[in-house]
Amino acid sequence: MADIRFQVHRFNPETDEKPYYQEYQFTPLEGSTVLDCLNYIKWHLDDTLAYRMSCRSAICGSCAMRVNGHAKLVCQTQVKNVVRPDGTVRIDPVGNMPVLKDLIADMHGFWTKMQAVKPYLMPTQPPPSANQEYLQLPEAFRLFEEEATCIMCGACVSDCTSLESDKQFLGPAALAKAYRFSADTRDGRRHERLEELIERGGMWDCVRCNECVQTCPKTVAPMEAILKLRQMALKERLTDSIGARHVTVFTDIVGRRGILDERELPVRSLGFNPVKLLGMAPVALQSVLKGKIRPLEPPHKVKGVEDVQRIHREMEDGS
Amino acid sequence: MPTHDVVIVGSGLAGMRAALEVCQGASVAIVSKVHPVRSHSGAAQGGIAAALGNMPPERTAKIQARIENGAVLPDEELNEDSILLHWFDICKGGDYLVDQDAAQMTAENAPTLIYQYERWGAAFSRLPNGKIAQRPFGGHQAPRACYAADRTGHALLHCLWEQVMKRSDQVTVYSEWIVLDLIIRDNICRGLVVWDLNTGRLETVHTKAVIFATGGYGRAFSITTNAFANTGDGIAIAYRNGVPLMDMEFVQFHPTGLYRLGILLSEGARGEGAYLINGEGERFMHRYAPTLLEKGPRDIVARAEMMEIMEGRGGGPKKDYIYLDLRHLPAELVRTRLPQISDLVTKFVGIDWSKELIPIQPAAHYSMGGIPTTLQGEVILDAQETLVKGLYAAGECSCVSVHGANRLGVNSLLEATVTGWAAGRAALAHSQQAELAPLPADATASAEAEVKGILENEGTESVADLRKTLQEAMTEKCGVFRDADHLKQCLETVKDLQHRFHNVHIRDKGQVFNTALQEAIELGHMLDFAETIVEGALARQESRGAHARLEYFDLKTAAGVRDDENWLKHTLAYRDGDGVRLDYKPVRIFKFKPIARKY
Prior knowledge:
The structure holds two protein chains of two kinds.
Chain A: E1 4-10, E2 20-26, H1 34-45, E3 64-67, E4 70-73, E5 88-93, E6 99-101, E7 104-105, H2 108-116, H3 138-145, H4 155-158, H5 161-165, H6 172-182, H7 190-197, H8 211-215, H9 222-235, H10 242-257, H11 264-270, H12 274-279, H13 281-290, H14 305-318
Parallel strand pairs in A: 1-5
Antiparallel strand pairs in A: 1-2, 3-4, 3-5, 6-7
Chain B: E1 3-9, H1 13-22, E2 28-32, E3 48-49, H2 63-68, H3 83-93, H4 100-119, E4 134-135, E5 145-146, H5 152-166, E6 171-175, E7 177-185, E8 188-196, E9 202-212, H6 233-240, E10 245-246, E11 251-258, H7 268-271, E12 275-277, H8 298-310, E13 322-325, H9 331-337, H10 339-349, E14 358-367, E15 371-372, E16 378-380, E17 387-393, E18 398-399, H11 412-433, H12 445-455, H13 463-477, E19 481-482, H14 484-501, H15 515-539, E20 548-549, E21 553-554, E22 559-560, H16 564-567, E23 569-576, E24 579-586
Parallel strand pairs in B: 1-2, 1-9, 2-6, 9-17, 15-18, 19-20
Antiparallel strand pairs in B: 3-5, 4-5, 7-8, 8-9, 10-23, 11-14, 12-13, 13-14, 16-17, 21-22, 23-24
């Protein structure tokens, strides 16, 4: 392996006004992970570098950091796979969280949001008799098996684009956890949980960019869990939210006309709420100027709308 | 000053399980150097033992063998798993250095406590009939490992954390606080001195009871499955405060750590049918455990691997490792029951398990020894069981002693759970009748001196160098096989390192997240207790369980020479000036008579 230049995010709140990058250059041993390299820096070059790590086998979730801009568990990231063509590797703390020092982020907000989804089993059925468990068939267990592998490393939260622009969003980790319990046959409070999660900051505020699915070091696929939460909410007739109306209206319009009418969608999604509608005005104006919305065109159906409606029906029947 | 009725140090299975008991009637705080879900309990893979009997009775043909092995079991107990059989397996697995009342308590409480996890929502794998799935495990005569794929520790740790979050108004959690000292005066534990890693502040915590649940000490060895956090802090702090350490020479080496890295590959792999193969491509376990083969207990399998290597039958250019073979296992089985290890193998060594052999070697894994306690987790000071009032220990840092000379797989999560539960109940009861004992004026003196001594030291020794020397000496000279010469050399190294530690230097002088200072403190801990491991091993002139002395071992028959007449006793190691003083304590044996341990 050749020399690698590690550009490491440094910030010491006791002495630094703002963060900076410090460069460390050396040749890592063959097979080194990024964590091995950080440890080499700490143990041989500069013991002032601070970061979290513990199990070094991808189960404790301590060492999520951004490597070249994307969150990873550095303990399971082979350095040879992340060296850039110019021989550098950039290491930053996880995003969407304040930095305490160097590569250590403040996860307080992460835990507050986790706590907000009531991340624990709330059974309502009587417990099984003394020497017995709740019975749960393997197929029922599989409904949440993957989501239950979450190690709460914060990688998904780091790279979540919705959170970047909306600090109120609960985020992928907390919502995946909410799904994990909503899908558990032993839980008795699914409806109450879902009722809270259709509110502002909840399941409908994900923009489905798929970053969290890409970045999750386990098999949680948080966005998929969020989509499953939405399906659950609709099935439980929790439709009184902008997001739910958006989905239903969207489907309704496309079902009728085979094409989306951007004039009708926001009005019906937001409900007749003058303040919110006024808030949409700049977007609407932009859309008109760009030709996405044609205000003067009468509503119409696309050619071959019968085919669209057939597909629509088949999908409805299938679900 | 934070004041709580009970303060628990450590947030793994033992610590959080204890907190869930204490919070039912007293104010409780958990102090942990990592956030609770980062605790090393989460790394346990294979399962948690309990005689639930969910699997149909297997291998009834083995019944006769059990009787020949000395199990005194009534016929009706032999048809399926039972608490009695679990109890017996623990005692035999521990090579009879097990306190049989502790093993009884563990086996008896296992089912109830596992059903409790399940009621709290733990994500157990399931059988087709909906019951908790169970599988075979080394040294257990029935399939009694309840599991959540190969991430059982993770499932249970997160389950407990969920329950702690549910009671966040009752349980205070101080994350990234490092305990430096216990405040014990007149044999009464009054509190703790902690160092807040977030701010660099020293804090005194005033309390009626302290429960140490600080985990094991695998990091004293160079090849280990343990997390960086497993530096035996609680064990060292108790030792410095006059508490003896019990049976420290018994360190379990896990047979399947990834070569050089030590990363754990679950025994569940062998439980599901994986083979061990030597450098010549031969399955060799028939020479060492003719009946159980790869499913033999860990000490026997680890020694078998070392003997293959010693006799030149290892794999690789240096012939210094063994192979784990999963190639014949069905892909579906690996996907559903061993997903984590197949992922680890791919990511850490770039191996396709379905086509290639996985290089493995024994890795320091579990500390059978630790802080001696009663069945209720009360810390004892001597062979007469004098108590330190208000001080408790649970989990891997404690030694009750349920595992004796060797722990069986899937009994560690169980032990952490049972001892955490028991210590929590006892500490709760104590705190309900005890008063807060006043703190002495010099409560923080020794901790302050320790921190200052490192921060202001302008010496020349590096923490990383000293630590590496210690770890290599321990693995090479106090490892799977030991002998007097190497142990003496190891002891010299440890003494030398203790001396050089007085001259240690760190560059970081800051207050916020000074992890260089943290590593120095942890090294100080390891240097202290490492001496008790070596001294205990040097004194114990026999082979028993995980402690194998070459002078008392027949390499031809692969059998250790156990000396019940002289050595069927627990070691107690006291700090004495600059050295260690050894004493011994009888083993409580009342149910199963010690017999030869064969598998």
